[in-house]
Amino acid sequence: MENIIQLQQNIIYSCSDEKIKSTEHYFPEHALGIMLSGESQYFTNDGTFVMEEGAICLMRRNQLFKKMKTLGSNGEPIALISLFFDQNILHEYATENNIATQNAYKGAPMINLSGNVFLKAFFDSLLPYIDDPKKLTAKIARLKSMEAIELLLQADDFILNFLFDFQEPYKIDIEAYMNLHFQYNIPIASFAKFTGRSLSSFKRDFTKIFETTPEKWLQQKRLEQAYFLISKKKQRPSDVYLEVGFENLSHFSISFKKKYGVNPSEL
């Protein structure tokens, strides 16, 4: 069972005593996290990032990834603390410290900061609030966020560009993006945002290219990928449906049989 405690609006503690299969996530804001125990694997189109116990990671906003959590080697729960930097707090910091808006950040979406003793001490200072979250007031949370920004800027010069690139996603090639990211089960509005469009312009451009709606295309694409993985790669339907972007096994099985005339398990 997973237990999530929202210590403050932008600071979250989560703990689970069971392995969690791959699930989709995306961060609308930058996130700084520490793995207290257990392990989390993050799968992106740029590769796999593994957070073991004690690992500290800075993750870029507007990133799509799948995550799988695993208990520690001795059965320790999967526990982590995450702090999110919304654009308002970053704009406030930039104004107070005369930081100009940076050019578009083009580096890695996940930065390994494990071993940084100052960030480790920062997260240690948050631990007492897990048992008494009411003590973490909004005022303290703001101070903690500002402290975390200071520590990150001391960690490496390029983090200035990472944090203070306020540019929104620009208009990109829908066809290439969707063929790379169709397996992420996120709202159509999120696909629109990540391709630099409003929802209405995304649907209009999408229909021109694919000659069908995003919803129909996504289901067909996911079913085709599932068929390949089950029939050619000999993977089990129970392992495939989440990987290709379906929410539950029942819906996947019904859709699969409707398209191919057989249950996925019969392959």
From TrEMBL:
Keywords: DNA-binding, Transcription, Transcription regulation
UniProt-listed InterPro entries: ExsA-like_N, Homeodomain-like_sf, HTH_AraC
GO MF annotation terms: DNA-binding transcription factor activity; sequence-specific DNA binding
UniProt domain HTH araC/xylS-type: residue ranges: 172-267
The keyword DNA-binding is assigned to this record: yes
UniProt keyword Magnesium present: no
UniProt cross-references to PANTHER family, sorted A to Z: ARAC-FAMILY TRANSCRIPTIONAL REGULATOR, HTH-TYPE TRANSCRIPTIONAL REGULATOR EXSA
Protein name (database record): Helix-turn-helix transcriptional regulator
Organism encoding this protein: Rhizosphaericola mali
